[in-house]
Design goal:
mainly alpha; 79% helix
């Protein structure tokens, strides 16, 4: 892909500004995944695995309720101010969560999950809306790929170290030792994130002239129908909702799979890490494919492959074997599933970021969050109702069928 001299200068100038924003994002991603995975593993090990579905719903509700407000603020206020506020709010959430983990108070744990969902609702339009402001449109997909790579590393560390922390007996010999370690790390990383956010740069951008969306979720619904006039953009939003709904619920099923195969908390976290590691690999492949094909020419094929791999998990994974004996096979399977998801996700996200006008990017990303987490709530509700009552492999296969059906039903007619 060729860039003009002016575009090259814009890329160089934007890179240093974006690095501080990306670092701030990485600390948040790490903390979010570290805490949630620790809580999920505790829920499974204490025989309360249905709480995973409830946590997923609570995490998603702020995106549904508050996305319209977050999008308006991102289009109206300096994004740096929003980022700093969001990181301070994250610190408060982690203090509540640390107390919940140490005392095993599920009310505090669930409150923290809801607060982190609210923090992400506020933070997301400000961060994602800044990418097309910093870079030329042709570079946005590449920037997203780099961001996905570094945030996936943070996510992998968070998920992987959650199990390690819980299995550690560093202070005294009971499980409480791991609970204390999780709480201390979560608060410490939140403090570092606040410090990193202070290094982000204020950027002057066009401000929205639309009134404050006092109707809240109904405004998001209206925005969704407004974007429906653009067929390509609306279908990209549907694709984003599908992937978030499937991927978030599959992660819950993997936690159950680890319990079914008698894996340690650390080994179970490694399975999720393999899934997440596949995403930046898929992002790199998507970057290469985008040089030859329009994004909508290959993402549905990736969704089909992802679905077939999920369906094949019921054939490949033998629940009668000790999980450790087939770990390499399972890790490879989830790595491939993640790669297919990455091929699907990055072009869709990039299109949603670049398609709207400059003064509407926050609103578009907020609408994306709104519809994404409707998908997550649907997935969480399905798990709460049936996922906790059937085997993890059966649940993975059900979502594989959903992915295959989606890839065959949705059609793109444009050539953009």
């Amino acid at each position: 892909m060729r860039f003009s001299l002016e575009e090259i200068e814009q890329i160089k100038h934007g890179r240093s500004r974006f690095m501080a924003m990306a670092a701030t994002y990485c600390f948040g991603v790490y903390n979010d995944q570290f805490y949630k995975q620790a809580a999920a593993l505790i829920a499974v090990s204490t025989g309360q695995k249905e709480l995973q579905g409830l946590a997923l719903i609570l995490l998603s509700l702020p995106f549904v309720i508050f996305s319209a407000y977050a999008g308006w603020f991102a289009d109206r206020l300096p994004k740096r101010d929003i980022v700093v506020f969001a990181k301070l709010f994250e610190l408060l959430a982690m203090i509540v969560g640390a107390y919940g983990i140490v005392t095993l108070n599920w009310y505090c744990i669930m409150a923290m999950v809801f607060m982190m969902g609210l923090q992400s609702t506020i933070f997301s339009p400000a961060l994602n809306g800044s990418i097309p402001e910093l870079y030329p449109e042709k570079y946005v997909m590449q920037a997203n790929s780099y961001l996905k790579l570094v945030t996936t590393v943070a996510l992998l560390l968070g998920m992987s170290l959650a199990g390690v922390a819980l299995d550690a007996h560093w202070f005294f010999s009971s499980e409480k030792s791991g609970y204390f370690l999780v709480g201390i790390v979560a608060v410490a990383v939140a403090v570092i994130g606040v410090i990193a956010s202070l290094g982000t740069v204020r950027i002057d951008t066009p401000k929205t002239t639309k009134r404050f969306p006092i109707e809240g979720p109904w405004s998001s619904v209206l925005d969704m129908f407004q974007f429906k006039k653009d067929d390509m953009l609306f279908k990209a939003l549907l694709c984003s909702m599908f992937l978030y709904g499937v991927s978030s619920t599959v992660i819950i099923a993997i936690n159950d799979l680890g319990e079914m195969l008698s894996l340690s908390k650390t080994q179970t976290s490694y399975l999720i890490a393999a899934l997440m590691l596949g995403i930046p690999l898929g992002a790199i492949i998507a970057n290469k494919l985008s040089e030859k094909y329009c994004w909508h020419k290959y993402i549905l094929k990736a969704a089909f492959v992802m679905g077939m791999l999920l369906i094949s998990s019921g054939i490949i994974i033998d629940p009668t074997q000790n999980g450790s004996e087939q770990m390499n096979v399972i890790i490879l399977l989830f790595l491939l599933i993640g790669a297919a998801g990455g091929i699907f996700l990055i072009p869709v996200t990039s299109f949603i970021q670049t398609r709207p006008a400059a003064h509407e990017k926050g609103r578009a990303i907020a609408t994306q969050n709104f519809i994404d987490f409707i998908g997550v709530i649907i997935g969480g509700a399905l798990y709460y109702l049936i996922g906790a009552k059937i085997s993890a492999l059966s649940f993975l296969m059900i979502f594989g069928v959903i992915a295959v059906a989606f890839s065959l039903i949705i059609k793109f007619n444009g050539d953009e």
